[in-house]
Amino acid sequence: MLGRFALAGILFAVSCLGFAAPASADGTLGVTYFTLPENHPDVGHGIDGVVIKGLVAAKLGPHGFPVATTFARTKGAPSSGEITDLDSDGEIMWWSTSSAHGVRVDSSGTAKLPLDMESMFPTGHTDDTHGFRTAHFRGQFTASSQPKNVLQLGSDDDAWVFVDGKLAVDNGGVKPKQFVPYSLPHIGPGSHTIDIFYADRHGSGASVQMSSAFPLTGTGVGGGAIPLPAHAARVTPSLTAEQMREQLAKTGRFSLRDIHFAFNKTDISHDSARVLGEVGKLLTSDATLRLRIEGHTDNVGSADYNNDLSARRAAAVKSYLVANAHVDPSRLTTAGYGFSQSVATNDNAKGRALNRRVDFVKI
């Protein structure tokens, strides 16, 4: 929002004293972009017009997302209202496909500083009428022993910066860009992580600009746990991460039949979160492991239709792991085989259920 809120986005111009550059730092951040649907309950309300502090807790939640405070959940900002899209631990789900409100991955990869993105809308669109863009940037930096660290930030709309999982910059609210300096808490010498959570929540444009005086090395594709809906905790996965690892060692592959999708769609059901969490654990425990995700269907429908559906479902599983376990997308490839590689008969319901599966193959 610029002037009468014509520009939405987030602007970082960072001047930071006391940071020493690691040799590999090149200003790269890992990033995953998400889209909140246009009917999401936390968007499209009023414009607060000022920074609203206290919407998120002092530490990231157990799954690596900001936690909404009691203030955010029960009263919220005066114009934009309460924050309601939360998991069972109170974490805000604007950056997770485990959201119950249709949050989806738009794209992921790396972003090189300085950023200058003028149209931060969902891919293929020029406005917010098809959804609202959010982003999770993640990096590393190395600090020296000098204690003073000053960061200047302006954002439209919400932006929160966490260093080592602790809130360092509280810049929430639906507001025009207000460029102000922030003094970061004391940071000791050594390596540190930085997480930047951004959300566009009002239909008045979107842009991102960011620069940093201290060097960053991208870790947005690093490890992370997958948030579970409350009922998913009661679901027992067919395989644990250790059992998956054992099967890979023996046969080079394992199959999962408890990744469930909406009928004829690629939407992953919430009860799949626990088994996908085990896949995430497997991948984050071994940074060298690379997998091909293969989709398989029964024979209901044409071969062409099922080949396409299985390929899209495999891609959905990859996107889920990238977004929720922060797995480097280059470690995962996908393929769809429809019913061409059936492992049981398709003449009865039991056999068709066995054929509907997702295979993971070591590459």
What is the domain tally?
A: 2
Low-confidence stretches: 1-24, 220-233
End-to-end span in angstroms? 46 Å
| Helix content, binned percent | 10-25%
Principal-axis shape = globular
Category by helix and strand content: alpha+beta
How would you characterize the overall build of this protein?
It is globular, with a radius of gyration of 21 Å. The protein is built from 5 helices and 16 strands. α2 (241-251) packs across α3 and α3 packs across α4 (303-324). The chain starts with 8 loop residues before the first strand and ends with a strand. It is an alpha+beta fold. It folds into 2 domains: 9-218, no CATH class; 230-362, 2-Layer Sandwich (60s Ribosomal Protein L30, Chain: A), CATH 3.30.1330.60. Strands 2, 3, 5, 7, 8, 10 and 12 form a 7-stranded antiparallel beta sheet that branches. The protein has a 5-stranded mixed beta sheet with strand order 4-11-1-6-9, with no helix packed on it.
Question: How would you concisely characterize the structure shown here?
Answer:
By secondary structure, the chain is α+β, with helices and mostly antiparallel strands. Helix content is about 15%, strand content about 30%. It has 2 domains: about 10-220, no CATH class; about 230-360, 60s Ribosomal Protein L30, Chain: A.
